[in-house]
Structures are given as C-alpha cells and as structure tokens.
C-alpha cells in the first residue's frame, strides 16, 4: 500500500530532479518554472526583511541580497546534486527566471509614464538633455578606458567595459562588434543596476548630484538603467522623468559613439 | 466610454476613472507587439531593442494624447514599483558566468563599480554645467519646480 502511494511521487520528483540537473533525455527537460519563480521571490523577500531589520544598511538592499543569496543557494544545491552551478542554474532556475525576466519588457516601457508626466521639462530642455548625454558619455568613455588600463584589463576586457551605459540588449552586440566579450558586458550592465540600487542614495549625497535635478536624473538613468530610473523617481518627478529619457537616449548615443571611440583607441 | 473619449480633447486626469487593468495590460501588450515588429528593421550594426522602441512609442502615444494617462498609469506604476524584483533573475544569471569571474573577476567588478560612479557623476555634472551655460549665455529660464 505504501509502496503504491510513494512510487508515483518518487517518479515525479525523479523527473523534476532530472530536469533540474539536465540529465533527462533531450526534449524532456521543458523545465519546471515554479522553482525559479519561488526562489526569486524567497531570496528577494529575505532581502526586504533583512533591509528592514538592518535599518537600511546598504548591503542589505533586497536586489543585492537576492542576487548573492540566490547564487549561493544554486551553488549549494548544485554541489548537493553533484553538478556544476552553471548547469543547475540553466536547467533548474532559468525556466522560472525567464518568466520574471520577461516582465522587464513592460516594466521598461512603463517609464514612458513618468517621462510624459514631466513633459514640460522635456519640451524645454531637450537640446540640453541630448547634448549633456553625448558630451557626458564621451568624457566617461575616456575615464573608463583609463581606469580599465589602470587595472591592467586586456583589450577584450576594456572593450567589454565601454558599452555598459546602454541597455543590455544594445550593449552586448556593440561589445562583440568592438572585440569585447558580450557576457562580461551583460554582467557589467547588471552590476550597474545593482550598484546604483545599493549605493545610489549614498553616491547622490556624497557627490551632491541632486543640486541639479535634471543632472541627477540623467546621471542615474545613465549609470543605473531602469533601476536607476526607479531610484531617480524616489528623488522627485523631474529626476524620474529625466532618468527615463536618459535610458533611451544614452542607448542610442552608445550605438553611435562607442564603435568609433573603440577604433580611435585602437581596440579593434 | 468610447463617446466620452471623443469628447475629452484636453484630458484632466485627476477626475477621470482609470481604465480596467486588463485594458491597460492590453495597451502595453499592443505597444510591445508593434515594437517587436519595428525592432528587426534596424541593422545589426545599430541595434535598437524592443523595450527601447516601446518606451518611445508609448511616450509618443501619450504626448499625442492618443493614449491617456488614465489608460496606462495604474499598470505602469505597478510595473515600475516591481523593477528591483524583476532584476533578481538578471543578478542570479551571474551564476552561469562564475568562470569569467574566476579569471579576471575582481578587476572587472572593480572597473564596473568605478565606471558606474563615473557615469553617474560625469553625466550629472556635465548637465549641471550645460544648464548653467544655457542660463548665463542664452538667458534661458532654467528654474524648475519639482
């Protein structure tokens, strides 16, 4: 009797584990999305809880905690099941992670709303906005190139660092085109967001960035992508609007400016 | 509802009721769908991804008042409030790239950290400078109220 009750469950779990470890026959691992969604929510909520009881300590920012804890849990589970972290991530976490990831599409276009809410500022300042983003990016590129050289990154590493101001989907192909590694660039884009999310408040205060609300918005949107825009919205409606426009314009500017800059520097 | 839409040429968002949430989601889906058709038209050397086109498209629809704030506001603000959570899978994605981090990880993370600060500060200061120039040289009114 017990056997009859247990066996089907074991079979189900066996299939789940097979999916998770990528050992099932090809085609069988359509993937179980529930684990990825559940893990993402749990680690993020733990982050929120830590942030609350840690009285807002910057390393307890939910996104940062969620990322570190999530990777750590995947690392431990991969060890426990005797597979590599990358494999376990791909087969166990990715199906669910991709579902959440997809919602970045509507979340990104949603920034048209805070942008439009301060359309008065956009209409008055658009030439200054575009000029500031172009000049600001070119100066930044020289600085980033210098810092990368200082840390003895090779040409591939340097080329991977240059397009990070653009949104990931633009930065990756640009990185490849100028001889960089798209995976490193994607990592940089993600880290930008995590860094701005964790350190943004402190950086804004330390560098007195908010003395000019338009500058603060453009800076946060450029450095932190959509997460920077969410931060900027907390500072005010102008900052939020300007960060939203920065996400779009800086991506186009990267498209145009980074390839010639790379060849000027003899990268590719 | 449709007749009311025709009458209001100058919307006063405060007094109007927000659209039902499924309609708001439908507008987002439509904008994304059209954007996904536009995105492949750009050459590979000049990539413009779907969400970037979508942001511009939704802004244009709002600015031309074809779509009103009450049609998209509720769902949009909700999505924005989720943005940090939606980034968790991207963060965890680094688990697949731990090999890269092993090789040159510390340098790359440090350069990225400094690059983030550079981008924030340089763009913010450049903008502040240009706004000051616009005020002094072109006598532009640069007062803004938040």
From TrEMBL, chain A:
One of its GO terms (molecular function) is hydrolase activity. One of its GO terms (cellular component) is membrane. It is a multi-pass membrane protein. Keywords: Hydrolase, Membrane, Transmembrane, Transmembrane helix. The chain crosses the membrane at residues 25-46, 58-78, 98-116, 128-148, 168-199, 241-262. It comes from the Bacteria. It is found in: Membrane. This is Effector of murein hydrolase. It comes from Levilactobacillus acidifarinae DSM 19394 = JCM 15949. The lineage of its organism: Bacteria, Bacillati, Bacillota, Bacilli, Lactobacillales.
């Amino acid at each position: 009797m017990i056997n009859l009750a247990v066996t089907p469950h074991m079979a189900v779990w066996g299939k789940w584990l097979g999916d998770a470890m990528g050992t099932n026959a090809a085609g069988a691992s359509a993937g179980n999305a529930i684990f990825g969604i559940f893990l993402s929510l749990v680690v993020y909520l733990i982050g929120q809880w830590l942030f609350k009881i840690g009285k807002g300590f910057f390393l307890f920012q939910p996104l940062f905690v969620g990322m570190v804890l999530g990777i750590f849990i995947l690392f431990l589970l991969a060890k426990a099941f005797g597979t590599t972290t990358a494999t376990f991530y791909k087969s166990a976490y990715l199906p669910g992670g991709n579902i959440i990831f997809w919602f970045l599409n509507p979340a990104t276009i949603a920034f048209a709303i805070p942008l439009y809410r301060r359309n008065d500022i956009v209409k008055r300042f658009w030439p200054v906005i575009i000029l500031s983003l172009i000049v600001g990016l070119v100066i930044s590129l020289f600085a980033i190139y210098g810092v990368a050289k200082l840390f003895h990154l090779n040409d591939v590493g340097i080329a991977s660092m240059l397009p990070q101001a653009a949104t990931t989907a633009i930065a990756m192909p640009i990185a490849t085109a100028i001889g960089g590694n798209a995976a490193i660039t994607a990592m940089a884009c993600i880290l930008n967001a995590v860094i701005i999310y964790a350190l943004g408040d402190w950086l804004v205060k330390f560098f007195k960035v908010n003395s000019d609300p338009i500058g603060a918005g453009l800076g946060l949107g450029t450095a932190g992508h959509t997460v920077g825009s969410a931060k900027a919205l907390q500072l005010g409606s102008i900052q939020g609007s300007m960060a939203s426009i920065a996400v779009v314009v800086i991506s186009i500017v990267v498209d145009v400016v980074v390839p010639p800059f790379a060849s000027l520097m003899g990268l590719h | 509802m449709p007749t009311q839409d025709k009458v209001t040429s100058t919307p006063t968002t405060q007094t109007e009721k927000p659209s039902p949430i499924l309609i708001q989601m439908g507008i987002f889906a439509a904008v994304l769908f059209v954007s996904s058709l536009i995105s492949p038209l750009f050459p590979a050397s000049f990539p413009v991804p779907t969400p970037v086109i979508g942001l511009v498209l939704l802004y244009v629809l709002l600015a031309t008042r074809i779509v009103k704030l009450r049609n998209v506001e509720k769902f949009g603000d909700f999505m924005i409030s989720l943005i940090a959570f939606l980034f968790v899978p991207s963060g965890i994605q680094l688990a697949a790239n731990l090999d890269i981090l092993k090789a040159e990880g510390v340098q790359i993370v440090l350069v990225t950290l400094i690059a983030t600060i550079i981008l924030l500060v340089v763009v913010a200061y450049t903008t502040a400078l240009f706004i000051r120039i616009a005020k002094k040289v072109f006598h532009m009114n640069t007062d803004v109220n938040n």
